Amino acid sequence: MNNEILVNITPQETRVAILEQGVSQELHVERTSGRGIVGNIYNGRVSRVLPGMQSAFVDIGLDRAAFLHVADIWGSNQNSDTSKPIEKLLYEGNNILVQVIKDAIGTKGARLSTQISLAGRLLVYLPQESHIGISQRIENDGERELLRDKLQQILPEDEKGGYIIRTMAETASESDLRADLEYLHKLWRDIQQNSVTNAAPLMLYQDLDLSHRVLRDFVTEDTLKILVDSRENFQRLMKFAQNYMTYIAD
To answer: Could you tell me where the beta strands, DSSP code E, fall in 51-105?
Structure first.
């Protein structure tokens, strides 16, 4: 079914409406002041280890240190007899690659994880995992297996990462999947390289804001038109689209 996407961008907030046959089906609002930092990836530095709490404070360059619990350290398993205490895993001054999983609230700093995930248009890349998951919104078992097989066929032989196949991939071609795969691999390589060549604390990655996620997440082959509220905002989105496609092609 053909749909239209309406985009309204102001300094205070961005609003995106998805219409089907002129009727609004979805409304997304993102306020500039409340965007948060969930999903951001940082090269952090451990500032303090707290054995009694099995946690650590990590400096990621914000006003308050962020919080990392041992359960959120990739590879740790608190239900295992062989799990290591946090004081055996981290030490003060240790540089560590982390991703924000919860925004700061009140006097509490942001919560971190060392398990990284990167969202593309069709896939979510889990570089430390090895399994392939599928969006629960794709309910047909046959379709789920077809998508899994399609992705497995294009994975490099030396692939060590895992993936979640997003709902948008349900009608994607093999070439579309391959392009998203290559984009995510390049993004991860860039993050790793920057983490090595730049001193902590430093933000290495920030997910797109809503105005740009429109082009990545909402546009499908059923999209009839995208209406943007001003020429300036339209030109800015088109420039992003061109840079995005150039980045994928490089």
So the answer is: 55-59, 66-69, 95-102
Type of residue found at 198: N
Residue 247, Cβ neighbours under 10 Å: how many? 12
Q: How far apart are CA 194 and CA 186, in angstroms?
A: 12
Stated pTM of the model: 0.84
In angstroms, the CA 81 to CA 143 distance is: 40
Cα dist. 240→35, 213, 245 in Å? 19, 10, 9
pLDDT, mean of residues 34-54? 93
Residue 11 has pLDDT above 50, yes or no: yes
132 phi and psi angles, rounded to 5 deg: -115, 115
CA 89 from centroid of its chain's CA atoms: 25
Calculate the CA 154 to chain-centre distance: 22
How would you classify the pairing of strands 223-228 and 3-9? parallel
Report the candidate in 214, 204, 203 with the shortest Cα–Cα distance to residue 236: 214
What is the SS3 assignment for 41? Answer: strand
> Would you say the C-alpha torsion 70, 75, 77, 81 has a positive or negative sign?
negative
Lowest-pLDDT range, 99-108, 144-153, 160-169, 237-246?
237-246
